[in-house]
Design a protein that fits this description.
mainly beta, globular, OB fold (Dihydrolipoamide Acetyltransferase, E2P), 5-stranded antiparallel beta sheet, 2 helices, 3 domains
Length: 238
């Protein structure tokens, strides 16, 4: 009989460079299951429990924790160690109530940051698509694969603060001059700055934004920055 489904493992040497794993311990490691996040920009849930948060000593122990319904991602119980966790996702250890938001920091794509109880049900989502549907409404798509139907007037590139796990929009942050942004990838990943100017794309260059940090200004593609507030970040991002 033919094998059903893809491989759940990947060679350690082929894993994304930002993963906190030992490269020479064993031959294989978990693969990110296809889903909302790119496999090159996400962690498998099992790796988070064993190698990042270190609440499990082995993968078998991590599997028991996950299968026991003790882990929530964005407020929903997940029972798959291959489930992908990416930008702004919140992993909650349901048994103790501790929660972590995964954000870029110190040039790394994903680092866990502890969040308080009043923030573990709030998430920042960047709008990546906008489609008109019946009833004069608009369906907005976000960077983590979620979608929301709304009659609010928003643009691609803006950010929404949503309530988890329902994904209802609490607040809308426009991407504009003067807004506070978070750099999500590249050598400046994790940096928080203000938008000084927005420059339209041309044939050879994508749309860019001039972002000022404490002592310098950098021109960055808008694809790798995310609005997190108007005057300051609305929630903890570093």
């Amino acid at each position: 009989m033919a094998k059903i489904g893809g491989d759940t493992r990947v060679k350690r040497q082929m894993a994304p460079t930002f993963w906190s794993i030992r490269r020479k311990k064993g031959r294989f490691v978990l693969r990110v299951k296809p889903g909302a996040h790119s496999k090159r920009r996400a962690y498998p849930l099992g790796i988070i429990l064993r190698d990042v948060l270190k609440i499990a000593n082995t993968m078998h122990e991590a599997e028991r924790i996950v299968n026991g319904g003790k882990i929530k991602v964005d407020g929903i119980i997940r029972r798959d160690v291959n489930f992908g966790v990416g930008l702004m996702d919140i992993v909650e250890l349901a048994s103790i109530g501790q929660a972590y938001r995964f954000v870029p920091k110190d040039s790394r794509l994903l680092v866990p940051v502890s969040v308080k109880d009043d923030e573990k049900f709030k998430k920042l989502l960047k709008i990546t698509s906008k489609v008109a549907i019946k009833g004069n409404k608009v369906q907005y798509g976000f960077h983590d694969g979620k979608t929301v139907i709304s009659d609010q007037k928003m643009r691609v590139g803006d950010t929404c603060v949503v309530q988890l796990p329902e994904s209802t929009i609490n607040e809308h942050i426009e991407f504009e001059r003067g807004s506070v942004v978070l750099v999500t990838s590249g050598e400046n990943a994790g940096g928080v700055g203000k938008v000084e100017d927005i420059r339209d794309g041309v044939f050879s260059l994508p749309k860019r934004a001039l972002v000022s940090f404490a002592e310098r200004s950098v021109e960055l593609p808008v694809e790798i920055i995310m609005t997190v507030g108007s005057e300051r970040p609305l929630i903890k991002v570093n």
